[in-house]
């Protein structure tokens, strides 16, 4: 051992102490050696000095080695302890080791080799023990740290859960408020619409041209407001899971023709074309005609609203016996890929400023999304800024009679039901058409 070791020899016999000192010196141990003649002196010495090893005579005048070891260990003094026993003391060696002795050696066997060997071993064992204790301590500390972290995380989780509950409650209250308000506003709005219609009838007396113009404006604005209110009401019903589909067997061409016909005046007012192309071998579907009409009106009013030049095309076709496609294509402003991800979320509009050019609640697509989900259908969107958009909806020819019962899990787009593409909408990815009976090809 290269380092200088601090060694304490505890023995009342001068000769024995000298024997140990000499043996260690002969072994070439570099050391600072201290000596104590009894147990109390030894206890005093260890309080002031940290030793690398203590050689301890088992038989001391004031106490035996076992008592001293017990007292040393009780005072948390961790030092290698080698007990030097007399002939016949070996039987108690086991007791000594149990009490905390590192090793023992019979005095009769003390030699430079034996002492050096036992010293090296004792120090090695002691250091290994110290390292193990340290590692254990560190492990305990990191374990405690982990427990603390876990407790913090658990606290945070509970806080988040609480926040979530508060948010859910706030959202429920908001939906309830929306539903109540739109419901309450519909009654006076219906009166405004009804009475303006009555005023416009000639049998209630003639209005001047200016008065007619004013009443017509009241009527048109009233209708527009009623449509917005209905959207809000539908949305809150969908959110609360209270909207149910009422499926029935009906001729899809009739509903589509009427709906597209009704939207024609809007297209005309903007001087854009509106064309309808229905290619169906079987025109009958089992679905909710009111909701199919609502989907078409929403898509068409958007297409017309966001198109300044060019036109809007509606295509109805079947891609298999059981799947019907409703596609609305326009040459309008288009939607960027970034915005496409959000426009199906409620209240989301590409332009959300108050000064925006295009009016609307931002609920139309969210409602379509929910309705299509309820019908077990899919929505595909292809769009390119400045070129136009194509909304393509695939629906089963026959929806399940129970569709719509229960709450729709999410009104928002979560990628599950809507498929986006930023391709040129004029090169639609729809499959090639089958030979089919062309019902209509209207230039409206
Ligand atoms: P609203 O039309 O009432 O704003 P929607 O939910 O129907 O709400 O549409 C959400 C947004 O999606 C619109 O505000 C618009 O930014 C965009 N959008 C929808 N349809 C089209 C379309 N055909 N062309 C361009 N943008 C569209």
Features:
444 residues, alpha/beta, Rossmann fold, Helix Hairpins, Heat Shock Protein 90, 3 domains, 7-stranded mixed sheet, 5-stranded parallel sheet, rod-shaped, binds adenosine-5'-diphosphate
Report what the structure shows.
The protein is built from 10 helices and 14 strands. The protein folds into 3 domains: 5-110, Response regulator (Rossmann fold, 3-Layer(aba) Sandwich); 168-239, Helix Hairpins (Orthogonal Bundle); 245-436, 2-Layer Sandwich (Heat Shock Protein 90). Strands 13-11-12-10-9-7-14 form a 7-stranded mixed β-sheet, covered by helices on one side. A 5-stranded parallel β-sheet has the order 2-1-3-4-5, sandwiched between helices. Helix 3 links the parallel strand 3 and strand 4 (81-85). It is rod-shaped, with a radius of gyration of 46 Å. It is α/β, with parallel strands linked by helices and 444 residues long. Residues 298, 302-303, 306, 330, 332-333, 335, 343, 348-350, 360-366, 389 line the site of adenosine-5'-diphosphate (ADP).
